[in-house]
Amino acid sequence: FKPVLSPDGKWLVYGTRQDSVTSLRVRDLESGDERTLAENVQRDDMESRFTRDLLPNMSFTPDSRALVTTWNGKLMRVDVTTGRAAEIPFTADVDLALGPLSKFDYPINDSTLTVAQIRGARPSPDGRRLAFTALDKLWVMDLPNGAPRRLTRSPHETGEHSPVWSPDGRYITYVTWTEQGGDIHRIAPAGGAPERLTRQSAFYTDVNYTPN
Fold this sequence. Notes:
Order of helices and strands: EEEEEEEEEEEEEEEE
Helix content: under 10%
Strand order of the largest sheet: 1-2-3-4
Structural class: mainly beta
Distance between the termini: 32 Å
Strand content: 35-45%
Number of strands: 16
Number of helices: 0
């Protein structure tokens, strides 16, 4: 992307990316030979603000011997033959007026929270209660208008998901997850200490991952 042609028509420089590194490539238009001119330059904007251009502008010197471009906030001169880059000193006196600070105070209620989404809602076999996950924790409530109450006292970093009632309604089985792995637990609808059902924690596996 962003190709630039030298004044003598011999060189073509363009930007490219390999993995996460943006580099400049140069092609000899007479021979067709191509090589990397500069590695790890200004990160391109293909994944963000590409509508505002992919790379900063760059241009050849009139004699076609060097490329003038910019990366890391500096003007750079790159020798086309050797690829040696040198910073072009540049300073500017800028007097920029700023408007008044826009600052507003907003009250935040940090004592109560209205939950906008629940997940995994499951009614009990007798239809009198509802188990669900909210804020990554397990809750239960009486239907139709009971007050939700949390069943467990697990740490903040433990997620509790996918509740399922036992056929007799005596237990709620659910899945827990932390960075150390996941397990299946069950707990009585009245609360208490949960019982771990799995003997070994499960771990997420990326099927596309290939170990070295």
